[in-house]
Amino acid sequence: MTERGLHVAYRNGQMLAAYLHLAHPTGQKAVRTEATVDGLLVVDFGCEGQPIGIEITAPRKVPLAVLNELLSELGEVPLTEQDYRPVAVQ
């Protein structure tokens, strides 16, 4: 089982993107993606239709409240401020 975790990617010392891995069976691949209207968040869905991850395409533009609203819509537990700190402090 893959545990939930936030990974942040940098290029030349600048935050480029972030990815929130959601808990799902190990080896699960995305079979469908769906972007939010503004394109700042992209949800990856597994073969059974469950969300397996969320790409945060412009981390500086996505407040925690917006991400948590999406997580709630997906039936996922919201992130805490501490969980989102690697993105928020940039």
How is this fold's topology laid out?
Layout: E1 5-11, E2 14-21, E3 32-35, E4 41-45, E5 51-56, H1 64-73, H2 81-88
Explain what you see.
The chain is α+β, with helices and mostly antiparallel strands. The protein has one domain (5-88). The chain is 20% helix and 33% strand. The chain contains 2 helices and 5 strands. It has a 5-stranded antiparallel β-sheet with strand order 1-2-5-4-3, covered by helices on one side. It is globular.
Q: In percent terms, what proportion of residues is strand?
A: 25-35%
Query: What's the arrangement of strands in the largest beta sheet?
Result: 1-2-5-4-3
Distance between the termini: 30 Å
Gyration radius over CA: 13 Å
* Coarse structural class: alpha+beta
Based on Cα principal axes, name the global outline. globular
Helix-strand sequence: EEEEEHH
Give keywords.
single chain, five-stranded antiparallel β-sheet, 90 residues, 5 strands, globular, 2 helices, alpha+beta
Please give a quick description of this structure.
The protein has one domain. 20% of the residues lie in helices and 33% in strands. It has two helices and five strands.
